[in-house]
Amino acid sequence: MFILQLALILLATKLAGQLSLKLHQPSVLGKIIVGIILGPALLGWVHDTELISVFSQIGVLLLMFLAGLETNLEDLNRNKKSATFVAIGGVVVPIVMSYLVAQYYDFSMAESIFIGLLLSATSVSISVQVLRELGWLNSREGSALLGAAILDDIIVVMLLAIAMSMFVGVETHIALWIGKIILFFVMIILISKWIVPKFIQILSRFKITKAVLSAGLIICFGFAYFAESVGIAGIIGTFFAGLAIAQTKYGHKIEKQVQPIAYGVFMPFFFVSIGLSVSFEGIGDQVGFMIIFSMIAILSKFIGSGIGARLTGFNLRSSMGIGAGMVSRGEVALILAAMGLDSGLLPINYYTSMIIVIIVTTLVTPPLLKGIFGTRNPSERQVEN
What we know:
385 residues; mainly alpha; Na+/H+ antiporter like fold; 16 helices; globular
């Protein structure tokens, strides 16, 4: 059965991606929508099985790995101030706005705070693919967006750890967790500088097929495991793995060899899996709730992160684009929603509605970015449909 689903997903995503491009929209939009069509929400031909979930996880890890390979380290460092302001604005404003609206709906204080944290999370993986298609990934705006997404993830996880400790009795040693994060970045810097180049160089001498590619993937998944072991998203680890390899002479070669694997097999599953999360069962009386929280989710990130960008020297268009790029909640918020359900911080009768709100933020991000940024350099535009 999985073989048939594999063929169906690959065919459907390519057709949907091509149709999106014909309609002058990023191909990502069509791939997510086709997941909704094929999934439980409509046709019910594809379900989120364990194998599809595994392929999806590999897909998003490779997506951020490629983003790291294509990112200019100097640009990333130059825009660290902007990234900090964008991240802070993109956390504070959603928490405040979501909390106030949740209180209006008579959620408890603990539930309101959790919803605020849930909608302050950012998943930049969708934005990365859209920016790549539009030619904006390796730009000042792209660098600020990537840096902000990394900081955003760390801030939200830290705040969530505090909330879980306060409201559901989960024992969390904040000082220990912060120590782990600091250790993570120190180790990443040291490994990137002293071990990564030598490791690839050693494997490149092996008389086997695709030795350099294998070295790159080992580093990619190794960094992802290291990141998850300290409590942050694996995609941050793979991004830094790509960034480390990009500083070596093997960066371009690994990037070219990873792209067919990522785009041809694994990434379609990631985009489809987002759509598979949608279900319309039992939400008839919560339409108003979903509309209001969707608007809050979109506007709070757009305004908060946009103001952060504007305060650090970006013009209005770039600030709006960065704000739009931070709107997508994607897989990060889906994971947090599941945690909230398990811990009792997200009421079960609102779980499906919040999932749909998360999906809405993910669906609106590609056309928002296209409308604001447009295509930066058509001759260098990278389209994978």
